[in-house]
Amino acid sequence: MANKKPITGVYLVTDRPLCLHHSLAEVVRLSALGGVSFVQLREKETDSRQFLELAKHLKNILTPFSIPLLINDRLDICLAAGADGVHLGQSDLPWREARRILGNDALIGLSLETKEDYHSLIQTHPNPELDYLAVSPVFDTSTKTNTKPAWGLTGVTWLKTQTNLPIVAIGGVNESNAEAIVEAGADSLAVVSAICSAKDPKLATENLTKKFQY
């Protein structure tokens, strides 16, 4: 994808155990109909073959909507499925290697768990070849375990003053706090249970998307 989609709007991060009312594929399809901007396939428990099958299936669902599919952590799955990029954490493959392997057209995002993560990134790479930085977590959440203390709204605003890269907020994001997070400086809201566990994922996505329309 030579012309990358701007990092804005609702960013669905999948979690199959949280898909209470619909299959994962149906949640993704309904979120696409609701106007989701990005989908990240996150699979912590499944084997590589099933992960790849899921990725290909979701890619087929999202392609007609021109919605990018990102893969959590796994560059091999991203390449094999023809996905649009990867989301990396602090302990995953270094983002520089991901960029070298996937090329300039791939979307690559990096989670920051602390302000120190940001400082060390900028000290080594003043202009990192990343498409977005993720504040993780904004609020404490059960869907992300072993995380550092939450950034809070002040943390989002702080990062906004430090970088020109788009900011994706993840962790405890839902309809009740979404507007405040956007006002604090987030360009995109990454949500898990707010869409995956919704009885009507399309409506949930639409309601979150409205937070970006002032």
UniProtKB/TrEMBL annotation:
| UniProt enzyme class | transferase
Q: Spell out the GO cellular component terms annotated for this protein, sorted alphabetically and separated by semicolons.
A: cytoplasm
Instruction: State the SUPFAM superfamilies in the record.
Output: Thiamin phosphate synthase
GO MF terms on file? magnesium ion binding; thiamine-phosphate diphosphorylase activity
Q: Which InterPro entries match?
A: Aldolase_TIM (IPR013785), ThiamineP_synth_sf (IPR036206), ThiamineP_synth_TenI (IPR022998), TMP_synthase (IPR034291)
What sequence ranges are listed for the domain Thiamine phosphate synthase/TenI? 10-195
Q: Cofactor binding mode, per the note?
A: Binds 1 Mg(2+) ion per subunit.
Pathway assignment reads: Cofactor biosynthesis; thiamine diphosphate biosynthesis; thiamine phosphate from 4-amino-2-methyl-5-diphosphomethylpyrimidine and 4-methyl-5-(2-phosphoethyl)-thiazole: step 1/1
Record-annotated residues binding 4-amino-2-methyl-5-(diphosphooxymethyl)pyrimidine? 40-44, 72, 111, 144
* Substrates-to-products reaction catalysed: 4-methyl-5-(2-phosphooxyethyl)-thiazole + 4-amino-2-methyl-5-(diphosphooxymethyl)pyrimidine + H(+) = thiamine phosphate + diphosphate; 2-[(2R,5Z)-2-carboxy-4-methylthiazol-5(2H)-ylidene]ethyl phosphate + 4-amino-2-methyl-5-(diphosphooxymethyl)pyrimidine + 2 H(+) = thiamine phosphate + CO2 + diphosphate; 2-(2-carboxy-4-methylthiazol-5-yl)ethyl phosphate + 4-amino-2-methyl-5-(diphosphooxymethyl)pyrimidine + 2 H(+) = thiamine phosphate + CO2 + diphosphate
Give the enzyme's EC designation. 2.5.1.3
The record lists Mg(2+) as bound by: 73, 92
Chaperone: is it a keyword of this entry?
no
Cofactor list: Mg(2+)
Q: What does this protein do?
A: Condenses 4-methyl-5-(beta-hydroxyethyl)thiazole monophosphate (THZ-P) and 2-methyl-4-amino-5-hydroxymethyl pyrimidine pyrophosphate (HMP-PP) to form thiamine monophosphate (TMP).
PANTHER family to which the protein is assigned, alphabetical: THIAMINE BIOSYNTHETIC BIFUNCTIONAL ENZYME, THIAMINE-PHOSPHATE PYROPHOSPHORYLASE
| Similarity section | Belongs to the thiamine-phosphate synthase family.
Q: This protein is called what?
A: Thiamine-phosphate synthase
Organism listed in the record: Leptospira noumeaensis
Gene from which this protein is expressed:
thiE
